[in-house]
Write a structure and sequence with these properties.
The protein is α/β, with parallel strands linked by helices and about 160 residues long. It has two domains: about 45 residues, no CATH class; about 100 residues, no CATH class. About 20% of the residues lie in helices and about 30% in strands. The chain contains three helices and seven strands, in the order H-H-E-E-E-E-E-E-H-E. Strands 1, 2, 3, 4, 5, 6 and 7 form a seven-stranded mixed sheet that branches. Strand 1 and strand 2 form a beta hairpin. It starts with 10 loop residues before the first helix and ends with a strand. The N terminus is likely disordered.
Length: about 160
Amino acid sequence: MDFARHKLIGPYRKHYGDDFCGTKTWLRRVERGSTRISAACPPAAHEVHVIKVKIDFSIFTQEPKSIGSVSGSIDLVTAPNLGDKIWFTVTANSVPFPSRGFDGCLTVERRMLNANPINSELFVLLSDLVVPTDGDARAVAEYLEEGFGLFVDIYGDD
């Protein structure tokens, strides 16, 4: 089969190749003369399943001074492993990133799985967040609350 003559070769080959449903499925569709791009892969192959992960970490200043703790749930496309980095740089609601004190990355230090099949959650402890000043800590806390819906407990605030 001369693939260069088919309309689906080119940018769609990269998109519908091995990434979603495998080369053989794509080739079968091309050989049958399908020109509908949506026919290249079954719709279920395009669905992205998210995993709800409960997280927890602490915020400190460089002095060192304990500022507070952060907890809540985030959605990820895969379960994180020990040593994985989780980036908090882009929010769904376009909250501006804090100007200093936080690069947006935290490392997975521990992970715990619940044995209960009805409530099978993944709980992850992240590395501590260390920022230069109290003001930076409050800016990052506000960013995490507004941008990711996390609960931030600032010690000393009532």
